[in-house]
Amino acid sequence: MNFEWLGRQFDNIVFLLGWHVLLAVTPLILGLLIALPLGWWAHRSRRIYPFLVGVAGLLYTVPSLALFVLLPVILGTKILDPLNIVAALTIYTVALLVRVVADALDSVPQDTVQAAKAMGYRAYQSLLKVELPVGVPVISAGLRVAAVSNVSLVSVAALLGIPQLGSLFTQGFQLRFFTPIIAGIVLCVVLAMILDGLIILLNRWLTPWTPKVVAS
Amino acid sequence: MIRFESITKAYPDGTVAVNGLDLEAPTGKLTILVGPSGCGKTTSLRMINRLIEPTSGTIYLDDQPTSGMDAALLRRRIGYVIQHAGLFPHRTIVDNIATMPLLLGESRQKARHRALELMERVGLPETFANRYPWQLSGGQQQRVGVARALASDPAFMLMDEPFSAVDPVVRAQLQEEFLRLQREIGKTIIMVTHDIDEALKLGDQVAVMRVGGKLAQMATPSELLTSPADEFVADFVGRDRGYRSLGFTAAAGSVAVGEEWTVQLGASAAEAQAKATGAWVLVVDAGRRPLGWAQPEQVHGELRKEHLNLSGTSAQASGTMRQLLDAALSSPSRRGVVVNEHGELLGTVTATDVVKAIEAEPHLETAR
Amino acid sequence: MINYLFDPAHWSGADGIPTLIGEHLIYSLIALAIAAVIAVPLGIYIGVTGKGVFMIAGLANALRALPSVGLLILLVLLISPAFPSKMGYILPSLIVLVLLAVPPILTNTYAGVRAVDAAAVDAARGMGFRTMKILTDVQLPCSLPLMLSGVRSALLQIISTATIAAYISLGGLGRLLIDGKAQNDYSQMVAGAVLVALLALFFDQLLAFITRRVVSPGLTRRTVKATLPSGEVIPSETAKTPTAV
User: Fold this and answer.
1) Does residue B199 share a domain with residue B97?
2) pTM score, whole prediction
3) ipTM of the assembly?
4) Residue B314 falls within a domain, yes or no?
């Protein structure tokens, strides 16, 4: 490891890290916001469920590099536009979370839902105050997977020249120089772990009634 | 015959599941192991087909020690039925039942044929043959479990809480059918249950076990009710022992059956009034089978179905004291209806008659 | 893009589309085979014996966090000096592909074996099945649906990552994307992207079809909850909803 190089590149690395966080986290939030109503819809309608889950599965099969390249055709953006990455990762996040949200809502015990209804909760109140909170552990488990894979997928965009931590890999490859590659891998893993940890904390904060378990 | 000789099962952590158990399950009889949870009854059962190895002692199968046998071959000689049936979810019903014959080397065709036979025997329609376990109710799955265990026609059967995962109505039905089946096939069976009523209902003999894996008492159901060995057994057998033990006491002619006048539906109010003893008259059909009791004073015009009171039970003359007494107590006229084996009226008895007969016999004959 | 795909010149020769598809397939299938040979027996072993469960919990998420691009480049720089030939980039590519494919197959095989009804296994043993026969006749067929969905997501991961490996000179459809980028030929890139997506879709559907053919209809009604659209089981203790007892 050439620490002197790292020191000189510090500002640049922070810049790349910032972009990486932005490109990984924005789709996570957007994806969750889109997946919640879609998942609820799939949960409510037995006819919609296989359709939404099927479409989600198909979208999920499209390889990331291919999606990064195809989106400009659909969105009319430039190939170097970071928006493509945000859109692509949002699609993956939605694809992953729609089913998770539907299954999470399905997993809420019928007794609980019936009790809420019997006490006079309206459908939206029951959803917001009972069903969603009870489904949080399952949703956050899915969100953790999405967060960690987003961090890894963002770095693929380096092959197209969009700046983020992946740029350290291409830079290292061109220079036959290990330091940026290792720094990039370490930062990616640390970033993934931090996001993972934040979601675990968020889950605990949202579900104070569940027994504390050691996170994997 | 299955025989336990001072069987002990102790675990490395010091818990003793079964402690010096001696027990004999006679050939062709249904022996029941019953006791509270933690009494080692399931452990005892699973030591017979060596799913669990005893720490010390020997189990004999028809006087051969099982310890020297190949465990898998031993198990193939013994039918095995468990609580949740344990059907193979990826195989159809007929294939599930054919498992054992196939394992023993029968041809596919023969095994399937045997499986279809058994489906009929345990009361499953043939249309179920190509269904999968998830398409069956719990009770139906348990029938498949019994059929699967019988498919190789083993001389021995082990049953671990076979009827406890289904609702009470289905359970009673399965128990009745199983009793009928066992009367036909006469297997040497050991069954485990935590339900003392099930044990008393099904068992030829019942072994009550206490926590710590010791045998508390081994006796016939009526002996357990009439002479429990100690306080634990008395407590476990439960309340109403005196009344319940009448269920094992044959009535067989010891109670005098009184004559009862009868009318049929369509009779006039006057006829009903004339035939009535006290306020009530017994109504029968053309074949003298009892239909119910009626109060003539409520009949205007002719006697119709809606006049019938159906609360009374009827007892067979060859039945038990408990059935006779119940017939008397449940009847609105306080006269219990007694019928023959075809359901035709023989007469009525009063509770006093039954109690007198019970008191008259110092040692009652048991029904089995 | 249409022009590119319909130009006959692109459908022949050493860098023609059929060759690229062939290369993509060969690398993918070799990696999948190696990964399956490692992960299936290991997953069965861990599932049956319960030994090494800690590996399952950590492995999936840890390997998911590793950026595949970084890993590829790192391995090429480490390995290629030792292998001057094509192996210099084929070997690191295969290592990365296998590394990414093992976790989904391993975790799903493990989960599949664990999900087999304990009563069915007990009944099998009680009827006199020997350990091997319990495995082949009960545990394996019953865990097949989850195992195959693990294989399915592993294959998708491989096809996707093999595309990326074109950056370090590996053949396959990724060449169209990487070379197109280098030559500023966007239509070539889009053609490559479409072909890769079609390839992935085709294999996804093929595996779905195979799954329907080989998995007993007695099992498919029992859908396993908390799986991802990729068919991968969520590797988390929270996936077993603590509310549903």
Assistant:
1) yes
2) 0.81
3) 0.86
4) yes
